[in-house]
Each structure stands twice: as structure tokens, then as C-alpha cells.
Amino acid sequence: MTEENTAPLKIVVLVKHVPDVQFDRHIDSASLRLDRSESVLSELDEYAVEAAVALVESQGGFAAGHEVIAATMGAKSASNSIKKALQMGASSGVHLNDEALIGSDTVVTSKALAALVEHVGDVDLVVTGMSSTDAETSVVPAQLAERLNFAQLTHALNVDFDGATRELSIRRDHADRTLTLAAALPAVLSVTDQANDPRYPNFKAIMAAKKKSITEVSLADLGLAAQAVGAAGSHITVLNAEARPAREAGTIINDSGQAGIALVDFLAEQKLI
Amino acid sequence: MPSALVFFTELSDAPSKAQRELLTLAASIGEPTVAVASEVPEAAVTQLGAYGVNKLLVAPANESSFLDHSLSALEAAVKESAAQVVVVANDNFSREVAARIAVRVDGSIVTDAIDISADLVVTKDELAGSYSAQAQASGGVLFVTLKPNSIEDTPQAQAVSVSVEELAVSAATAPSVRIMATEEKVASDRPKLTEARVVVAGGRGVNGDFSAVEALADALGGAVGASRAATDAGWISHDAQIGQTGVTVSPQLFISAGISGAIQQKAGMQTSKCIIAINKDVDAPVFEIADFGIVGDLDKVLPQAAEEIRRRQA
Predict the structure, then answer these.
(1) What's the mean pLDDT in B128-153?
(2) In this complex, which of B111, B180, B301 lies closest to A139 when CB atoms are compared?
(3) What is the C-alpha radius of gyration for chain B, rounded to an integer number of angstroms?
(4) Which one of A110, A141, A257 has the shortest CB-CB distance to B103?
């Protein structure tokens, strides 16, 4: 990365508070909503925070006036994900919290997040993870690029920024090829788990994060009507959601020298060969 | 009867298995139109007729920038076909193109679908396949991305003739993303991991050597996969990674070798029809979901199984 004395970068990194994938996750059978009680910062968003903070560090650091604003949309507890991003080095946070947002599909989620980015104002770059680990659609970054009219650089395997030209380039897999793509800012960047190794906040960083501000934002602040978002504003309605029956363990054998043959016998029984 | 549009970025002489599943699904919904964002070979047109496709819209690629042409082609095809439902592949690129056009036309999108009924109720996986959900769109064009291995590939009893039209595509409107370089990946004779009927995957237990995993995959005509531990160790390409942060597979047969089966790994394979696990550790969580488990040394079990398959097929 080239170091140049360019205008400060204003980066928004989008983070999501999601149920911890280490545990069993549940969809409530009455509301058809995901149980979000045991939630954490989505593991894949740590790569986004790291990419944003590393980009700033490569361009003279926060002392040069660059900003990394961790932004989220979600209930009160979602601010914990912003706090984690602040510990990892983001400079401030913005939290869109409004009951009316519950039940938003991706088209509406991208509408609200685009409005949030515009509310932050003069943003050069939006950074996200490759996917959330709950809904796993991975389409919101592309939808944000569409709505904000920013260049779409998504699923980045690595990230390179040229401070002189303010051009971002990434590598991404596409069909049977790996492409190197480049675009001028403003852009939406999503990074894969190959892009970097997220830092682990040390005690100093955790203490420093306590002094950083988190701004609460409502739909009214964004100029969005309650009916335009959430379940009311979304075309998609979930009709039902059922846990698949748990898989049951089948026959387990110890190899006493013939297990490979037994494996093939099993395949033949199941008509798989 | 609703009208369905199938969108492909590319179509070779013979549609891939995942593409044939999309065609089968579209034909079950209504008279399908296919749109392709590049030149279509003559042989492929005949193939489309066999799946009941009566109209093909072709938008030959005309520029080198990334994404723009596919966006414009899909947008034009949606308008031209007046389809109520648009089905595309489940890969990242197709999802993104569909998702952006869903925004452009004020439609909606459902990803990871496994079926669409005639009245456009979409069945999909949630939480890495641990839940199954159904969803419906209340208005606008519905875009759906279909997981491979969800639909039984079935051509129509009666082939139809396909009318081919060139699609008028307007100039790109999205900010330019330039393609600076293209590296072709090493071509493999094995089936594509996400589409394969059989997947043999190796983990930490292969200890750096994937040859036994590959040999069994080849004996079964399957694809090779890996756990994140194996790809992070550099034993095999990251493209092979199955799990929460890699690809999700749902084959007829999944053979797990030397993979413990932690929750993130299970997320990538638990919807497989049949699971066989080989692991040295009797307490490995993978045995809880395996239809058949072998506690043993994969370096002995895999070659013996591969040899036995070849012997029976000889």
C-alpha cells in the first residue's frame, strides 16, 4: 500500500449482533423470529473491522484524521457488537435501533443501512463481512452498492489500497477464475475470512474503547417511515420454520482390519455404488 | 400459471447439473424463459428445448468491466419476460446480481432455496440446514437462488422448440469495477464440490496428505472437500473448505475422514443424505450424525475401501 498525504478517509464498517454459532440456535415457533439472546459480534464481521482498521493504519493511522465508524442495526444489546469493534480499533459507533425494523428482509435491510450510511455522511468506504452467520444471505453488501451508487468490491480474498489514486483493488473468486478487480472510491467492500487475521484487543485497547462514543439513531433521524421498513415494508413473509429432526447416529464399528470392506458393503446396501 | 425466468451468466454446450436443476424447477412453475448474459452455443439451445424452455433471451457480453453487463442483462430480461419469479444459481455472483436487481425493481429475494411450489411458496434452509422454513412474497418480482442437489434433474417428456431473441441491453449505470487480471484455476476432472453427488472430505486427521481422500473420491466419482483446519494448514486449496465460512454441500453421500465434526463443520454438510465418518477418536462429534461410523486409521480404511470399490466395479 502506498502512503500518501491524501484527504482523510471516512470508513463505515457494518457489524451484526448474531446468535453465537458455537451453540444450538433456535427460531421461535410462534413469532418465527430467531432467538437472539446469546448473541455476539458475527465472527465474519471481525474480518471487516480488521480490514478497515488496517487500511487506516496503512495510510498514516487515526492521527491523520481517518475515521472508522462501526455501525449496526438491531436491538439494544446489538451495541455490544459495536463495543467489540471499538475495542478492535474502530474510532466511534452508530447504532440504528428501532422496533419497527423487526422483520426486515434484505431489500429493506439494505434500504435502512443505506440511509444510515447517508446519515453518517461523506462516507468513502463501507466495509462488511462476506456474510452474516445467522441469515447467511451475503447479498446486503451488493444491495448497498446498488442503493448508494458505490462501486461493488465484494468477497475480497485480499485488499489493496493506493493512497495516491484512492483506488481500491481486491482479488475475488468467480466461477473457475480468480479475478483482480479495481475501482475508485466510494465503494462497498466485503471481505472473506481469507483477507486477514483479526486482531485480539489487548487491555489497553479495551480501556480505550470505553472512552469512544456510540451515537443512537432512530428511523425518524434517517427520514424513514416505520411502514417502509420491518415486516410492514418487506415483501417477504416467513410462513413457518421448523427444526429438522436431529440426525441419529447409525452403526459405529471399530476397525479390526476389514472396515474399508464394511464401508463398501454399507454403500452397496444403501445403493450408493 | 405464473411465469418463471431462469438467469445464467454463462451457458456452455451442455448445461451443468445445477443449471439443469434450475430448468427443471422453472418448468414445474410455468412456461419458462431463459436469459443468458453471454453468447449461447447452438447445442445448448436444443438442450433448453428438452426442458420445456420456449424462449431464450441472449445478451452477448460487450465489455470488460465486472458485473455491469450481468446487471443490465438481468434487468432487461426481467422487464422483457414479465416473469413473476426469477430463479438463479446459489453462487455468490448470481446471488449478488439477483439481489441488486431485486432492489432496482422493488422486488424481493430469497437465498438458499430448496424448492418453489406452483403458488410460489419458497422452501429454504435456515441456520445452516438445522431448520427448514417457508416464505412467500407479497408483491413485486420474486428472485430465488436455488441450492444445488435440491431438485431431481428431469427433462420434459416432450421437447419444445426454442425461440431465440437478442436482448436489448441498456448501457451500464453502476460505477465501474475494472477487471485488472484473470487467473484460471487449475482445472480438475472431479465434479464441482457444491454440485457433486458424492463428497469425500479430509480434516486434521489426514496430517498433510490428501492422497487417500482423493483416491477414494476418484473411485466414487466424487469431489474432494476439507475442513478449515486442513485448508488453514495449507494442505489443500481454500476452495475445498466446507463449513460455516466455506461452501455448503448437500450430496447424496458425504464421507468425512479425520474431521472431528465441530459445529461450524457440521453447518456445511449436515443436510447430506447419507453421512459416513472415519475418525480415530471414538468421541468425535461427527459420529453423532453419521449413518455409518468407523473408529480407525483413515490411512488404512480409505485405501482399502477405494481398492474394494474398484474391485467390485471391475
Answers:
(1) 94
(2) B111
(3) 21
(4) A110
* Shortest distance, CA A198 to any CA of chain B (angstroms): 15
Task: Report the 10 Å Cβ neighbour count for B189.
Answer: 6
- CB contact, 8 Å: A183 with chain B? yes
Question: In terms of residue numbers, what domain contains B152?
Answer: 4-166
Instruction: Looking at the complex, report in whole angstroms how far the Cα of residue B187 sits from the nearest Cα belonging to chain A.
Output: 8
**Structural domain total, chain A:** 1
Identify the domain containing residue A209 by its residue range.
Answer: 10-233
Average pLDDT, chain A: 94
Q: How many whole angstroms separate alpha carbon B294 and alpha carbon A252?
A: 6
pLDDT at A5 over 60: no
ipTM: 0.94
Based on the fold, state whether residues B11 and B128 are members of the same structural domain. yes
Residue B126 lies in a domain: yes
The whole-chain average pLDDT of chain B stands at 94
Q: Which residue has the cell 465489455?
A: B63
pLDDT in tens, B36-92: 999 999 999 999 999 999 999 999 986 667 999 999 999 999 999 999 999 999 999
Give the closest residue to A137 by CA, choosing from B118, B102, B28. Answer: B102
- Please report the residues numbered 63 through 102 in chain A whose beta carbons come closer than 8 angstroms to any beta carbon of chain B: none
pTM, two decimals, is 0.94
DSSP 8-class letter at A244: P
From B118, B137, B152, B135, select the one nearest B273 (Cα to Cα). B152
